[in-house]
């Protein structure tokens, strides 16, 4: 273990905090003193390994020191916390274990941050695809054969893939600790057979989802900050729940139902066929809907977001809407008993044509 | 070192730091080296405890810090005691004397 490793260890301890002047100064101060201690230990005849161990041991609980200083965790650090903690804990363990610290530290470092492996799998007769993701971006496209193909690149260490051939369920799970300070992360590509009737369930935090011209039976999607973008898809039933992510859905075949719930994300839906039932709820996101053909009922709720509906091929609508302060412009004949259109906003504007 | 002694010493971290700064300006590792020397290597503060105490004393106006330059262009943070710090040190010593006597009467 060298002086350089001590510096790397401190970098890790401090990496989850915003680098303010105060935090930078503290790090510089601690590093300088740690180097003094290291030099003292070496001068007293200790091996570099033992000296390194002693230095790390003597650091104590830097996390609570930084917390006490009210150092701000890095904004993107939520997933990093656990990673950095792991390092700190591992460092303490190594120190206790009395083994070669430098060696083990290096090993841990390499296993976490250079575990770049490519994953390639194919599954036949898939009925349901369940993806539990954290930060990996995923892209769907059409397969050239009857199989679902998975390709993953980047930080694929610990990626769980399970296939139940009896039920046709394939589960893919991204490990939590995968989020990397050295960036890169993981990206995935999934190929779905043409005209498939597979059900797709995705949950993700920050990963983006992109659907390219695929045909599936249903899509159930929940994401925190990730966006969903689709182009020319055929999905019989769609349910998307997003917090800050935007939802852009382009369907080119009629659909039974679409449900989109977002907090601040925008909902942008266009279908070149009809959608029988539509349910959109958002707080501050804007809603833009364009569909073709008559429908049973559209239910759209927004708080501050604006709602715009373009209803092609619908002679008249049974509009029942309300807004508190928003402007309402309905440029469609209204009649009872037709396609039912419910639009409610608080301050958002409502436009229908 | 017996944990009871460690616990008692830990309660006087601020006073110990002030004591060394009464002699002359100093920095973290030097203070720790002095503690080791005076306790025959039986005790020292870990960095986190030491810097927490520095922050606390500096925020309270008992010590102040400045960056001194080392030969190789590196900077080292030195601490210096303020008048308020000298006063705190004298008060703490009085407190210590009286509690030391009290504890002695209680335990013997």
Residue share in helix of chain A = 10-25%
What spatial order of strands do you see in the largest sheet of chain B?
Answer: 1-2
Write the CATH homologous superfamily of chain B. Winged helix-like DNA-binding domain superfamily/Winged helix DNA-binding domain
Order of helices and strands of chain B: HHHHEEH
What order do the helices and strands of chain A follow? HHHHHHEEEEEEEEEEEEEEEEEEEEEEE
CATH topology of chain B: Arc Repressor Mutant, subunit A
Largest β-sheet summary of chain B: 2 strands, antiparallel
Output the number of helix runs of chain A. 6
Helix share bin of chain B: 55-70%
Anisotropy-based shape of chain B? globular
In the CATH hierarchy, what is the architecture of chain B at level 2? Orthogonal Bundle
Low-confidence stretches of chain B: none
Q: Which structural class should the secondary elements of chain A be placed in?
A: alpha/beta
The radius of gyration of chain B is 15 Å
Structural class of chain B: alpha+beta
Descriptive overview:
The complex is a heterodimer of chains A (353) and B (108). With 353 residues, chain A is of the alpha/beta class. Chain A has 6 helices and 23 strands. The N and C termini of chain A lie far apart (71 Å). In chain A, 35% of the residues are buried. Chain B has 108 residues and is of the alpha+beta class. Chain B has a single domain, classed as Orthogonal Bundle (Arc Repressor Mutant, subunit A), CATH 1.10.10.10. Chain B has a two-stranded antiparallel sheet. In chain B, a hairpin with a 5-residue loop joins β1 (63-69) and β2. Chain B is globular, with a radius of gyration of 15 Å. In chain B, 22% of the residues are buried. The model of chain B has no long low-confidence stretch (mean pLDDT 88). The interface between A and B is medium-sized, with 21 and 18 residues.
């Amino acid at each position: 273990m060298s002086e350089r490793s001590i510096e790397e260890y401190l970098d890790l301890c401090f990496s989850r905090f915003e680098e303010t002047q105060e935090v930078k100064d503290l790090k510089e101060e601690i590093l300088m003193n740690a180097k003094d201690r290291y030099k003292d230990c070496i001068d007293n005849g200790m091996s570099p390994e033992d000296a390194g161990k002693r230095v790390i041991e003597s650091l104590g609980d830097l996390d609570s020191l930084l917390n006490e200083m009210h150092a701000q965790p890095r904004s993107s650090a939520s997933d990093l916390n656990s990673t950095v903690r792991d390092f700190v804990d591992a460092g303490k363990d190594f120190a206790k274990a009395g083994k070669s610290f430098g060696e083990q530290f290096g090993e841990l470092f390499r296993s976490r941050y250079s575990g770049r492996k490519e994953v390639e799998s194919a599954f036949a007769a898939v009925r349901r695809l369940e993806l539990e993701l954290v930060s990996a971006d995923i892209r769907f496209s059409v397969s050239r054969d009857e199989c679902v193909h998975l390709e993953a690149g980047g930080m694929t260490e610990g990626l769980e893939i399970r296939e139940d051939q009896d039920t046709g369920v394939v589960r893919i799970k991204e490990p939590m600790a995968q989020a990397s300070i050295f960036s890169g992360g993981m990206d995935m590509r999934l190929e779905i057979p043409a005209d498939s009737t597979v059900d797709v369930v995705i949950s993700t935090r920050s990963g983006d989802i992109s659907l390219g011209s695929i045909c599936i039976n249903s899509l159930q999607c929940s994401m925190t900050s990730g966006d969903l973008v689709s182009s020319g898809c055929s999905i019989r039933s769609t349910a998307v729940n997003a917090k800050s992510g935007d939802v852009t859905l382009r369907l080119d075949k009629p659909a039974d139902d679409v449900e989109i719930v977002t907090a601040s994300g925008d909902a942008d839906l266009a279908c070149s066929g009809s959608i029988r039932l539509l349910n959109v709820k958002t707080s501050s996101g804007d809603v833009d809907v364009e569909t073709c053909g008559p429908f049973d009922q559209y239910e759209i709720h927004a708080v501050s977001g604006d709602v715009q509906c373009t209803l092609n091929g619908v002679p008249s609508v049974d509009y029942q809407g309300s807004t508190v302060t928003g402007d309402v412009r309905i440029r469609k004949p209204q009649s009872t008993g037709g396609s039912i259109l419910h639009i409610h906003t608080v301050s958002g504007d409502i436009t229908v044509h | 070192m017996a944990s009871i002694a460690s616990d008692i010493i830990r309660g006087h971290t601020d006073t110990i730091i002030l004591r060394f700064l009464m002699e002359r300006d100093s920095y973290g590792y030097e203070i720790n080296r002095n503690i080791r020397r005076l306790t025959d290597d039986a005790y020292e503060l870990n960095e986190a405890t030491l810097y927490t105490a520095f922050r606390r004393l500096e925020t309270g106006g008992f010590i102040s810090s400045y960056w001194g330059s080392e030969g190789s262009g590196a900077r080292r943070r030195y601490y210096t005691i303020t008048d308020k710090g000298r006063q705190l040190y004298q008060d703490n010593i009085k407190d210590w004397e009286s509690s030391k006597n009290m504890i002695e009467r209680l335990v013997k």
